[in-house]
Amino acid sequence: MDSPTTTVTTTPDTTASGKSGVYHLRTAGTSIVVDARGTGVPVVVHWGADLGALNDAALYRLADLAVPAIPPSSVDHPLRLSMLPTPREGWSGRPGIAGFRAGSGITAIDLHLSTVNTQGARALVVLLTDAAAGLHLCTEIELSVEGVLQVRHTLTNTQDTAFELGSLDVILPIPDRAQEVLDFTGLWSHERRPQRSVPGQGIWSRESRHGRPGHDDAFLTVAGTPGFGFRTGEIWATHLAWSGDKRSWIERNSLGPACMGSGELLSPGEISLAPGESYQSPDTVAVYSDAGLDGLSSKMHPWIRSWQAVAPRVRPVVLNTWEAVYFAHDLPTLTKLADAAARVGVERFVLDDGWFTGRTDDRRGLGDWFVDSTGWPKGLHPLIDHVRGLGLDFGLWVEPEMVSLDSDLARKHPDWILGTPGSPTWRHQRVLDLDNPEAFTWVLARVRALLTEYAISYLKWDHNRDLLTGSAHRQTRALYRLIDAVRAAHPGVEIESCASGGARIDLGILRRTDRVWTSDTNDPLERQAIQRYTGVLIPPEYLGGHLGAATAHTTGRTADLGFRLATALFGSAGIEWDLTQASEAELVVIGQWVAQYKVLRSLLHSGSVVRSDTSDPALELHGVVSPDRAAAVFAYVSLAAPSVALPAPIRFPGLDPAKNYRVHPLNLGAAPRTVQDAPPRWLIEGGITVPGSVLALVGLPAPLLAPEQAAIFTLDAVN
Ligand code: DGJ
Fold first, then answer.
1. Tens digit of each residue's pLDDT (9 = 90 or more) over 522-554
2. C-beta separation of 96 from 171 below 8 A
3. To test ligand 1's pocket by mutation, which of 191, 351, 359, 500 has the most ligand atoms within 8 angstroms of CB?
4. Residues 196-221 as b or e (16 or more Cβ within 10 Å = b)
5. Which residues partner with 259 through β-bridges?
């Protein structure tokens, strides 16, 4: 978007203790200005559009102008929203930090600035202390080269008794014009449903107490100018990179300054800091965009892609056995399925739930991570040898955080299970206490033993219940340690994160995994919405999307093969269907689709994701444009009957206006069904060459697609 200029301007103030001043971080169309003068907690005086290069005098003036008047019936000094607002400062909204030291009578935390250090051109480290309360706080602020802001706090107890931490959050100011709020909710198989509101004064707070983000996770909290869309409007968005309990909120109150906050949701007594002990908050990740949600994706996606130290992994086409066979595992069935997968060009065969001791259904076996000797007398070797002999690699499902009460593990180590004997089961299972070092060591050893004995390239790592008991903080940290240990010992193994579908999709887990299972539904109509909104934050190559059976198992809705293929194309593609039951004609089309995916995936998995705001909610357009804008692939999707017979022209965003593009329809199997006598001429003629400016501003006449159809177009620059 904008040119990636980066500056950090520091105007030191010698009157303050330590190195203080006004700091300006800017890059990729975003500025953040921090007023760290004096001895108080620093104030973010601007987070938003790039202010350009400001000299020291201008920065000071900006910081001075941000000091408000003294309001009526208030503290007798200008009330400023600091980075960690507290009642001590006169802030009566939700505080940024809360806690107490038993018996000390200290409840009002009173932090003072010690020093500010710059770390390179785009990062600040702010040190604060409250000597009386015995607290030392380090706040790290970094603006990535892509324009993604990351903020985290580390709090240390410097006295010789325990400090009970209640909350420690990241709070950022938003301007008055950011009135409209978008966040998400959902259900199993219907994750990330967008919800919009214009909250009045008060707190609009989304809280997750699932021990995982949950199907109803807020996911992203976005505040924007009224009516912001995919391509328009200013937005300020936060996401907490954390897989446990959390909260995120927008606060607007009668004091005036509005803000957004996020942090881990701590239970009473959960964080009791021993003398010298520290608590580090999860990272709050924040983005400003002046180009709506696509502008957010244009910063988040390259940033997430930059985590991969080496070249990105090619995302193989997967066949997952779950909806094909469920628990009915046997070697002849699975080898036939692998043969059919190989025939259509699948590259990875993933054996889902059902392979380990006693696991005949979802009521038993979790924890007994040994290959079931009844069904698999020779272990998984015959199957894996067969799969690998076909040229596919092999993946295995595990759910290491869980235990069935009907398992050898539960019988032998009831003390490793979180909760009490009467605690509720969920999917007939309980949670293994990973914070117990013995349980942790045991489960790590089992996963490692499987990875050592078998040629496994990929783990599908599932998590099928809420925690409900125990410490979500400790369990989540232990989970991260467990995955990190597996990865360190087996660096070549890829991990897919799954949680009853998409109940644990966040940037904490994504840092440690290669793919997420976006949702348990393979119904393309549901998937269009789930992928569209999950993809605002997460790049498509991480989003598992599978071709399911004609009649979706989760909804009972039947969809055409073409619509199912078009939907599964725009992610990390796979198949979850008993291909041994597919017709010869279907297998041919699926083979062509796999071949097409292999051609397109380098574009799909590296380009900019773009989406159009359409006036008709029944019609959507989304696509991916290559980084050099020489190629693109788009899907024009009809979700339901359109509102008019001649839909608005399809306008293609994100292209180079100066380039000419050849636009080709790409049929995956049969052409999408239309409900008109003759589709537009350019489609009958098989394509057209048009300047990018015309494609963006005027568009091409649209076919009148029948409901639940998608037309795919590839675009190639021809000059
Ligand atoms: C829930 C997952 O989301 C499914 O894909 C499947 O792996 C089942 N668990 C297996 O129990």
1. 999 999 999 999 999 999 999 999 999 999 999
2. yes
3. 500
4. eeebeeeebbbebebbbbbbbbbbbb
5. 173, 251
